[in-house]
DNA sequence: ACGTGTGATACCGTTCGCAG
DNA sequence: CTGCGAACGGTATCACACGT
């Protein structure tokens, strides 16, 4: 038995090898045959399958996989989270002097921050409230709050404190050092109970739009933008983080059912195309009976749905290279790499719609019969042997027999495929 | 992490062309 | 008309990509 089987095996292997080489050279991509790949793919003859990394013919589909779309989405969601912030801070100007300090009604004004030092420390002792420092040279301001106003001011008047590592990055600190405290005016805006400090500070920040405030909301990091270095650091710290079971449970609960941000939403056409592309093992090339490349579909399933067929059927057609519904061929590798499909876009073109319509209208055709004369001139195509029988008055079994053999009968040549000269 | 969606496959009953 | 077998259709299942 083995002796008989061997030549067949060799033949198949040779076919495989040829196609693998061809595919490999042309595409330079990973190719599998179905026998080698476990699991999903089962086609056993000559089908070659690319992985999801398969490089597509550039003519195939223009919806690139690496579009910046994702990034845009990220940006959108980011902005969305900060809508409040956008509304409140968008009036902040990069030109420094535009602020509303002139309209403030302070409880107390110290024209010269440095010279009024003693008065400030004495009068603001044990006071809790919101203050504003204004640079008289350029008009820039800082709004802050403290439960101990005097202590806070003492710090601002203390250059050693200002120069310390933990404070030196603050714009107001830099300004105090650069322009000297005597260039600043201190306003005591409001005395506030500690519990309400944040609210009142935020109120004044949004009202004044002070240039020196980095954070746009009192006691909150809202509006702060980390430097690239900080982000790098945070990134590194987060990389090996493992969540506890409790945390995971919380995450799960927060994302289950209606809580999931994607609940009841659906993917856009673009997303769906990307998913098809990413998931598809290989594209499907659609040819007509003349073996002219009509269009390329991104996956078997896409095609199956459109032509109201199913995966199994199409895979069989690809595998056996049989003509489908009497007119079309499907392949997962092009007959000729140089061919350009007549229809370039399968998603939205009248031509493709028409093609799909034609294929669907032919769903009743199982084995069409092409009839030729003795000189192989095409005469007619019938939807099946019975139709040919009725038209030509030749028994259907006779037609079938000669179609199989390819032999002439009574001046006719019958074929299940179009004969291409 | 979960919800949505797709691809591929297996499986099985139904449909339908075909042959006798 | 009937039985056969290919084609078809529907669904369950798994794996996983994408979006939030």
From TrEMBL:
The answer to keyword Mitochondrion applying to this record is: yes
A Pfam short name:
GIY-YIG
| Entry keyword set | Endonuclease, Hydrolase, Membrane, Mitochondrion, Nuclease, Transmembrane, Transmembrane helix
Annotated membrane-spanning segments are 6-27
Recorded source organism is Hypocrea atroviridis (Trichoderma atroviride)
SMART domains (UniProt xref): GIYc, IENR1, IENR2
GIY-YIG domain ranges (all copies): 126-214
Its family remark reads:
To endonucleases of group I introns of fungi and phage.
Q: Please indicate if the UniProt record lists Chaperone as a keyword.
A: no
Stated name of the protein: GIY-YIG domain-containing protein
Tell me which PROSITE patterns the record gives.
Answer: GIY_YIG
Quote one Gene Ontology molecular function term. Answer: endonuclease activity
């Amino acid at each position: 038995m083995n002796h008989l089987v061997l030549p067949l095996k060799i033949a198949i292997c040779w076919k495989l090898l040829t196609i693998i080489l061809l595919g490999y050279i042309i595409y330079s991509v990973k190719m599998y045959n179905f026998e080698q790949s476990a699991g999903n793919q089962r086609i056993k003859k000559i089908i070659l399958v690319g992985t999801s990394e398969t490089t597509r013919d550039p003519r195939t589909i223009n919806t690139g996989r690496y579009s910046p779309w994702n990034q845009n989405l990220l940006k959108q969601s980011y902005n969305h989270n900060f809508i409040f912030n956008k509304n409140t801070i968008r009036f902040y100007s990069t030109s420094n002097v535009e602020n509303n300090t002139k309209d403030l009604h302070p409880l107390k004004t110290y024209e010269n921050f440095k010279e009024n030092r003693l008065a400030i420390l004495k009068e603001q002792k044990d006071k809790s409230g919101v203050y504003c420092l204004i640079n008289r040279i350029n008009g820039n301001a800082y709004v802050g709050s403290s439960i101990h106003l005097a202590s806070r001011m003492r710090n601002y008047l203390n250059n050693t404190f200002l120069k310390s590592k933990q404070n030196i990055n603050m714009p107001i600190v830099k300004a105090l050092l650069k322009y000297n405290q005597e260039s600043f005016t201190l306003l005591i805006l409001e005395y506030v109970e500690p519990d309400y400090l944040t609210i009142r500070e935020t109120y004044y920040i949004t009202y004044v739009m002070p240039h020196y405030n980095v954070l746009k909301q009192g006691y909150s990091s809202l509006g702060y933008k980390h430097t690239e270095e900080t982000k790098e650091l945070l990134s590194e710290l987060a990389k090996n983080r493992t969540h506890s079971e409790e945390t995971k449970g919380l995450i799960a609960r927060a994302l289950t059912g209606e809580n999931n941000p994607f609940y009841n939403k659906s993917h856009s056409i673009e997303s769906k195309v990307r998913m098809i592309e990413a998931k598809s093992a290989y594209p499907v090339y659609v040819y007509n009976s003349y073996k002219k490349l009509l269009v390329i579909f991104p996956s078997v399933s896409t095609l199956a749905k459109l032509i109201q067929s199913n995966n199994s059927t199409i895979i069989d057609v690809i595998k056996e290279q049989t003509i489908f519904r009497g007119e079309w061929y499907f392949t997962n590798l092009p007959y000729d790499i140089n061919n350009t499909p007549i229809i370039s876009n399968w998603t939205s073109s009248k031509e493709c719609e028409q093609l799909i319509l034609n294929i669907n209208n032919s769903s009743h055709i199982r084995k069409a019969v092409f009839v030729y004369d003795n000189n192989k001139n095409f005469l007619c195509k019938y939807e099946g042997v019975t139709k040919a029988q009725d038209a030509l008055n030749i028994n259907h079994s006779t037609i079938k027999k000669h179609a199989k053999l390819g032999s002439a009968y009574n001046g006719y040549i019958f074929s299940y495929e179009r004969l291409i000269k």
